[in-house]
Amino acid sequence: MNPSATSMPTKLFKPLLPCLLACAVVAGVTGAFAPAPLSQAADPPAAATTEQDDAQESMAAKAEILQSTRWRRAIFELGEWLSVQKIYPPREVQRIKADFNTKVMKMSPQELEYLLDDLEAKFKIIDAPEAQEARAWMGQYLSAMTDRKRADVLKDVPNVVDMTAAQLSQEIQKIELTRQNLKDRQAAFDGGRKVLADVAAANRKATADASLAATSKMNSSTSYSPYRSNSGGSGGSPPFANARVGSGMSIGIGPWGAYVGMSLGNF
Hints:
By secondary structure, the protein is mainly α. Helix content is 68%, strand content 5%. The chain is rod-shaped, with a radius of gyration of 60 Å.
């Protein structure tokens, strides 16, 4: 082979070598920042997928609770209690229901479970005889009040939906204590009034007895007469006992005709 022929391509390639290296570098850098082909696109972040799955599971669990028999029974009993209670006026009942629905919509499944357990515990307390008596008494107690006085009494009392079962028990105990205190005060008042009535009745009876005794004594005593002796026994002579008998009127016929004679006796 001719040495000159071999060296000729070599001489032509050497000037192009720097250009080829530059193109290779540029191509490598460009490829490093170029977007991947569609067939090799990156998968969505795993965290976003997990959050979406958790949200769907939470909604499903919440829907299952809200459609359960326990929940429906609890809501029915709550509605029944609100309809027969005498503590909250109708406007307050509507507000309680609206607040309850708003809170339920924001609750998680775990919070709903806790709320359901708490409602069932409160219903057991409400159904107890002492709670029913307290509710009936409280209704009568508040019914005699003005709206302002009722609001003042209930201002520190949470509604039955917001309070826990323990708080409900405490409120019932407070009602029972108030009821007993008022009962004791009423009993003391009635007792004092009875004492006054008994004293007045005794005074009236004493006055009547004294009047009756005086009247009886007056009727049974003998009146004084100068014609009666004071020696006792059957008493003295009756009045005019010393007057002569014979006084009267007589009719006769004389020589001058008929006449009328009258004799009055001697005094």
